[in-house]
Amino acid sequence: MKNITAKIKQSFQWFLYMFGLSSSVVSSRRGEARLARNDETLGTNTGRVMTRPYKIAGTSIVVIAVIALFAVLSNKSADATWFNDRWSYRIPVTVNYTGSVELTGFQVKVVMSALGVDALKSAGKLQSDCADLRFTSADGHVLPYWIEDISDTNDLESASCTNTNGAVWVKLDSIQTGGATIYAYYGNPVAQSESNGENTFEFFDGFGGSTVDTSKWSEDTSSFSVSSGILSHTGGAVQHNVRHTTGLASNANWRIITKSKVSDGNHDAYIGIGDSSTALRVSGNGVGARISGGTDVWEWAKWVSATETQLGIGGTNSAPADTYHRIEVTKAGTTFTYKLNGSQVDQDTVSEYNYTYFHVEAFDQAFYDYVVMTKYAATEPGTPSTGSEQAQSAVTGNAAPVAYWPLTKDTYNSGTSSLADLGGSADSGQPPVLHLTMDDGDIDSHSCPDGGAVAGACDVSGSGNHGTANGTMTDSDYVTGKIGPKALDFDGTDDYLAVADSDGLDASEAVTVSAWVNGTSWADADRKSVFIKGGAYYLTVSPSGNVAVYGYGKSSQGYHLSNATLSTGTWYSLALTIDPNGFKIYINGVLDKTIAATGLITTNTGVSAVGAEPGGTSRFFNGKIDEVKIYNYARTPEQIKADYNNTKAYFAGGN
């Protein structure tokens, strides 16, 4: 925001000077011209007021306004909204494009070396298998991606997350003339990989099942088998093929990629396209490439009425047997390009046929790791370039949560062992003080991924807080979550999570408490606790279903009730902010009520609890709780809304 405001001011000053009006801008409340920016939109009064004490000709002021607006928009990618506060870092990735036609739903390859993943892993910022890697558009929209192993081993993400072996295919919503900026996010130690070829490509098969997927392939499927992510030809010394079931758009442009190998001897592996459903060497017309185990070379050829014409052949030992090779065939009109292991080896012009099928063919012992089809354009985007790393606090100006419990562990056993802090890679400067996840703790082994002790939930805030699981919780209390795979179901009788006292949870001036809740029943003689810091601040639900909040030390402590009431059996996102001016209650990202109250929040040595009064004496929550967060500052309405939108739309289970 500061950079944008400065750019606007600089543009005004420069143009006033050029028109001979002034070399500076004088602040005044008379005749003011206001330009403001709130995140990605114009129109809210958050920018600096720039005033004009001089009379300027209409044309001049239009020019000034246009230039100022351009200054705002030109900074859009640099100030793009942070997509999710659980990720600590990001790198801007620029996709250059000089074509005149907009590309939509287009796949772009970003090599791991451009992101510098080796250095990021060494610094402890990125998981060893790139599981926390995510990509978004400039406006924070999450983009599908797939991590490809470009080495000669099987396609394993653990082997792909290196500068040498890895690449990421990202599917962009739109690439217009001049290119696009996307962001690569990382820095979440507990995120699970969302690499998914099905969502990224026009066609994808990573052979993850136990049989040939007949919804994708037809013809000689019985001559192939699938095991451990590999498609194997089992039909003996006979030519067999499987072809893409739905076929290709007539004469469309495309790129087909596979990683395959053959055994030493008279064995061949093919990939290509044709106008016949049968194998290229059997009937019809087509173009393709193959590797041959008998000669340890690879070749590319065309077939006319099943008669093969060799178009080119690699050098001696260009494709050794028993080694996986990456074969890529691209069609652009009548021009075919062939690449082996990332290097272009030839380009040919072949008469246009009605190519409607792409084939995977084999003779004797041949193996395929994956098959991918991408879009292709006459003018392809250039090789993406990357910018400097950006930390969350530097972009948003705020810290990550000081407490965060996603409540998403797959299994749970009863007990009263310690909960542990899992963090360690949170953003520098203002890291969270508590962040418990329910999918990484293990009560039996008392260990989190960072080695700390745990009892069913890991704190990933990085602040060393510990807690205790209480009541009669069992594995069955972990149920389908709103955000992520799991949430915790409290029985309303004795279940709760206790959190020991921590200086980080003391918030004398300001605090934000947020959570997703789904009540089974609100009926009770007292309020149902979502989160309580004993003797300090409370987020609860009243017996009538109103959000009920309290703040010790404030001039009007509470309980203060929301205007809206919550139904049972429905997920709601709740947020409470307390600052020197009072309280604000939010429901589903929208401000529901503001309560004026001066004074500071009481700080003490009291413990905290999720799902009950600290100590487990009363106010037991009856229902599900997910994604509990504590911030040591008051989040703005825009941040509350963005947090609600990002979480509900992004995580599995969200609507």
From TrEMBL:
Domain LamG-like jellyroll fold: 509-638
Top-level division of the source organism's lineage: Bacteria
Matching Pfam families: DUF2341, Laminin_G_3
UniProtKB keywords: Disulfide bond, Membrane, Signal, Transmembrane, Transmembrane helix
Gene3D superfamilies membership: 2.60.120.200, Exo-inulinase, domain 1
InterPro entries, alphabetized: ConA-like_dom_sf, DUF2341, LamG-like
Chain segments annotated as transmembrane: 56-74
PANTHER family linked to this entry: CUB DOMAIN-CONTAINING PROTEIN (PTHR47635), LAMG-LIKE JELLYROLL FOLD DOMAIN-CONTAINING PROTEIN (PTHR47635:SF2)
Descriptive protein name: LamG-like jellyroll fold domain-containing protein
High-level lineage: Bacteria, Katanobacteria
